[in-house]
Amino acid sequence: MDMMRPDGSSSLPVLNGDPLPADLAHELMGIQLGVFLASVCNIVLVVSEGINDFSMWELMLTVDLLKNNIPDPSLLTSSTPEKDNKNDNQSGSEDYMADLCFVHARLREHDFSPSRLMLLRETLEKHFESSSFNIGSSSATPEVTDSSVAPSTKVEDLSSSQQDIFLLPLRSHDNSAKFEYGTYSSMLGKLRDQVLSRPLRPFSKNLTERDWLRSSAKIWDMVKRSPVASDYCKALQSSGLFRK
User: Which of the chain's termini has less CB crowding within 10 Å, N or C?
Assistant: First the structure.
């Protein structure tokens, strides 16, 4: 489906159905999706291409900025006991925020070194130190060089207990290329196992799968109608970065 009309506007409704330039609509849809996922998921995978691509990091900071007044999904269920409703406003004042797992993919073999991973982690923690996302640890990241690490040390051994950074190699056509740390398929399997083994971030109240689906639909509607996102859109329109 072509999302651009001949006049350059988006063919897809983004904010209240108002026509927007296609490039601006694409930008806002990415932000809306990020806000939605951060509001209803336990873990969100933030995938970047290469070791130096931080565009997705910037996107998640924008998500953090615009995720305003989006309640915990468990507070939107119709099955919530009436006696608990008195505390809904107070509980809803603290927005639910998913955990993030940063995946840097399509890496070359020289990118898989302890020093590069530690530098990436230090950069990540500084980048998100003022955000609402729980990234890294409160203690400073120690300085690490490849020569100071034991030869038997693996990159994954240097991951924090939160396992918030994962590296994936460039995938070969026949998937036969093997790095010191394994093939693309084996490392992808490790990523899957780490994500599935992480403890779940609890909602404010117990939530059935059916109620979660219903609440997610309500939250998506809130995201699409968000006045904060609308104001941000107007700011982008007046910035001159997007076509009129």
Answer: N
Q: How far apart (Å, rounded) are the C-alpha atoms in residues 204 and 96?
A: 8
Task: Report the number of distinct structural domains present in the chain.
Answer: 1
SS3 category, 99: strand
Place of tokens 């100071």: 148
Crossing angle of the two packed helices 114-127 and 55-66, in degrees rounded to 10:
30
Distance CA 177, CA 169 (A): 9
- With H, G, I as helix, E, B as strand and everything else as coil, classify residue 126: helix
More confident residue, 180 or 50: 50
CB proximity list for 117: less than 8 A, separation 6 or greater? 155, 158, 159, 165, 167
Residue ranges making up the domain that contains 131: 42-66+96-144+160-169+185-199
